[in-house]
Amino acid sequence: MSEAVMERDRDWERAHPFVQWLSYHLPIHVPGTATERRLRRWSQWVDRQIVRRAAVAMVVLVLAVVFACWTGEAYFDHVRHLDGSGLFHRIVAFVTAASMSFQVGMMLFWTNVAYMFAGSSTEDLAVLDYGVSYDKLTASQRREIAVRHRAKIFVRCFHADERQSVQLERAERTAYGLVRRTAMAIVIGTWAAYLIAPERALRWLLQWGGLMVNSPLMLTWLVMVLIALPMLIRMWTEPDEVGEPRVVALEKEA
Amino acid sequence: MLYNRIAVLRSERALSRQALAREVGVNPQTIGFLERGDYTPSLELAFKISRFFRLPVEAVFSPDPFRPLSEQVYEMQKREA
Questions:
Q1: Which chain B residues are closer than 8 Å to A124 by Cβ?
Q2: Do the beta carbons of residue B65 and residue B3 sit within 8 Å?
Q3: At A27, which helix (H) or strand (E)?
Q4: Range of the domain at A38
Q5: What pTM value is reported for the model?
Q6: pLDDT in tens, chain B (81 residues)
Q7: Which of A119, A241, A247 is facing B11, going by the closest CB pair?
Q8: Which domain holds residue B60?
Q9: CB contact, 8 Å: B40 with chain A?
């Protein structure tokens, strides 16, 4: 690898030596020209606002379905006097919680990778470092670029730049405001129901609330919402990237 | 809101966002957001960008909208003549 190229690559410099070592020594599949183009198109597509918003909608849908099914099922058990603490019941709750956590976690992780890594590709690295397009590089140059690209994915996932950090902080503040307002509304609503509601309705409300709070599945659900909320807000509010001005794009092609 | 001339300076030098982003150590998208005025840079980033273009920071960033460069150059030429 060219020392000059490495010196110019700030992301590579920021990578921990262990990550650099790992990136060199782990087996790697170097993409051909067609695969590289496909990957680039995919990474551009996945970072569009409409795709991010669709991912947010799916996460919200998963959380809503789990909430609705579990509270409905718990209430049904209670009304029919079914065994809500039996082994089968516990296994179903565990599988639901694990499946929900995995789905939401993976969706958020991959969207975060796409977000952090947006705007740069192996093609860009080839043009920056060697002054030619990826398809004109030799096999060893392609491998070297692929190795660095892989290490940079890791670095960028854990080192957001200043704009990304600012955006995440803003999303966290918005999420906190949302949680605070929701919690206040729930407290006020519960007190209002406690003081005003007829006795039968109040008993129903307390039983239903008790069923929800006692469930580890609902606790997992709450934790997932708290963890995912800032990232969902960020994904929803991040605007689309504007393309390169025509003059620079033409110069780049030349 | 902080106005900037990054897009013009980049165009003049036929510099891609990726190249500038690498030099100043940010994500290429951040350069796009800066150019569009959707993000106000930190002092550190503003100085890094100005140093990269070898210009004083007030030539690249301003709290007031910039006058077109062509207009400024033409006025200077007129004054000199």
A1: 16, 18, 28
A2: yes
A3: none
A4: 3-253
A5: 0.75
A6: 789 999 999 988 888 888 898 889 888 888 988 988 888 999 999 999 999 999 999 999 998 888 887 888 888 888 887
A7: A247
A8: 3-80
A9: no
- CA distances to A170, A208, A231, B62 from A166, rounded to whole Å, are 6, 40, 13, 21
pLDDT of residue A19: 75
Nearby residues of B62 by Cβ (< 8 Å), 6 or more positions away = B2, B3, B4
The answer to whether the beta carbons of residues A215 and A89 sit under 8 Å apart is no
Q: What is the pLDDT of residue A23?
A: 76
Tell whether B45 lies on the interface with A, counting CB pairs under 8 A.
yes
The count of domains in chain A is 1
Q: What is the CATH number of the domain that holds B65?
A: 1.10.260.40
Interface test with chain B among A127, A162, A250, by most B beta carbons within 10 Å: A162
pLDDT of the residue at A28:
81
Contact between A10 and B22 using a beta-carbon 8 Å cutoff: yes
- Whether B29 and A127 lie within 8 Å, measured CB to CB: no
Neighbours of A42 (CB within 10 A): 11
Among B4, B27, B35, pick the best mutation site for testing chain A contact (most A Cβ within 10 A): B27
Q: In the block, which residue shows the tokens 């990778």?
A: A113
CB of B9 closer than 8 Å to CB of B60: yes
**Contacts with B19 from chain A: Cβ below 8 Å:** 128
Residue A120: which of B26, B73, B42 has the closest Cα? B26
Encoded amino acid at A42, one letter: W
CB spacing of A163 vs B33 below 8 angstroms: yes
Q: Do residue A9 and residue B22 have CB atoms under 8 angstroms apart?
A: yes
Checking ipTM against 0.90, whether it exceeds it is no
Chain B residues with CB-CB distance to A116 below 8 A = 27
Count of the separate structural domains present in chain B: 1
Mean pLDDT per 10-residue interval, chain A, length 254 residues: 56 73 80 82 82 91 87 70 69 85 86 73 79 83 81 71 89 95 92 85 74 75 91 88 59 52
